[in-house]
Hints:
- Pfam families: UPF0020.
- Keywords: Methyltransferase, Restriction system, S-adenosyl-L-methionine, Transferase.
- Residues 130-168 form the Ribosomal RNA large subunit methyltransferase K/L-like methyltransferase domain.
- Belongs to the N(4)/N(6)-methyltransferase family. N(4) subfamily.
- The protein is α/β, with parallel strands linked by helices.
- It is built from 20 helices and 15 strands.
- Among the domains are: 3-114, no CATH class; 194-319, no CATH class.
- The strands form 3 sheets. Strands 6, 7, 8, 9, 10, 13, 14 and 15 form an 8-stranded mixed sheet that branches. It has a 5-stranded antiparallel sheet with strand order 2-3-1-4-5. It has a two-stranded antiparallel ribbon with strand order 11-12.
- Helix 8 packs antiparallel against helix 13 (297-319) and helix 17 packs across helix 19.
- The longest helix is centred in the C-terminal third of the chain and has 27 residues, at 434-460.
Amino acid sequence: MQQTMKLKIKPYIQPFERELAFREVKALTGSYPESQSTAKICNTDYCVDTTLSRSALADRLAYWESIQDSRGVQITLQSLRESTVNVVRNGIALDSLREQLPFSTEIPLPNRRCLRYGTHGIHEYRGKFFPQLVRALINISGTRPGGVVADPMSGSGTTVVEAVLAGCRGRGLDMNPLSTLLGNTKTNLLRADAEALAASYTQLRDELLAVEPRVAKKLEHLSSLPEEDQRYLKSWFSDDVLAGLDDISQAIFRLEDKYARALARIALSNIIRSVSWQKSEDLRIRKEVRLDIEIDPKKEFLEEIGRSVRAVLAFLYQNGSLDDLDFEIADGDARRCAEVWGENSVDVIITSPPYATALPYLDTDRLSLCYLGLLPRPEHRTRDQAMIGNREVTERTRKEHWARYLAEKNFLPSSVIALIDQIHSLNSATEVGFRRRNLPALLSKYFFDMKEVIVGMKTSLKPGCSAFVVVGNNHTIAGGHRVDIQTANLLQDVASDVGFEVGEPLSMEMLVSRDIFKKNAMGSEEILVFRKPPR
């Protein structure tokens, strides 16, 4: 039976998020919500006629705070999950956490955007998705529980985490081993036993706080790594720090609970940069030997694991453990996604590809990759060069990329060809550095790679289903002139060329996170919509 529901939108969200909020209501109910206020801006009260129950809407919506029907008001599941962040601030005791959750009466609803609830905040990651964005796009796509939500460049795993929280099956691929570890850990923690996790954390904390005699001892973890990795790590950490990291690693190894071990490894990875001689504000690996300050890895780690475990426990106490999770995040190449997932198998793709030559991808994670034993040091360059968007290239490889472009450029859209040729022409007329000289060849490689990814996405999607691609634009200086690289428009042209129906993109304000990557972030992003034609 149809009834009128009153909906309260989150008052602090951005304009593009309000648009997504309206679209997700339309997708679920068949109608756009109508305003209940004469205010033209910042209105929070809406209504919609629907046959869905109050709880059905409250369980699905991403950008709405509460749903009201004739029987009362219900806080949305998303808002309850976000509210757990307000409970864990200031190092709350674990016993108090148990007492306060799940919420019974008073709920500390967020008064600002909350992106780090639950497992979403356990490790810094450049270019991290907004979880609510993924949840809203799942709704907008019409994907129901049990459907397949995929991300061929899954990064920190946000799409897969939100997929399983929505009752869907999650699929992800990434070529960075730290990314796949992070994504798998974040998703697996949703089924962890909260009490076992709390007990393991207490064991780990107590062991690391115990006073130890200062005697020389073998560094067991470091010694287990390949010799070249050992030498590399010794050049980036002081002896005392390596000893402290080894104590942490051995204590983690002794934990019996696999979920606690995984979370602790992620916490260890997240402090690697701060306790090393790597410049903390630099995406590059540049050394800054600091002999004038004391670096205490155990203190850093205990602060990190304490914060992380409280965020995860709060989520588990509120949400409960999810036993029946269907997901897979594999070490794989986005260009081969159709081979991994199969033809006509995916209900929606939600992804954010790398920007063209924008970031030194593996460089940022190099110390973690070595110390955690995820990728031996000699393999870093090969893996990095295979990744889409990589900007490191030898002269020989540059020439190979350029030769391919000259031979095959007609397989790219005319807009892409015009951009690459313009940059090449401008740079050829002046003396430029190696990065600008390399750019035309690297851009050609990027768009050839992205064409393969987009073809794979189209093959993987079921007929009539969509891919949502979040991408940013950037610019370069060529021959003394600024040249805008409108990646969003160019990828739309690629998608159209391979047979996608290209929908109207949605511009989104780039909200720069307050982390080490903020000064390297892009100025604007867009949500692109590619729909596979129905049969």
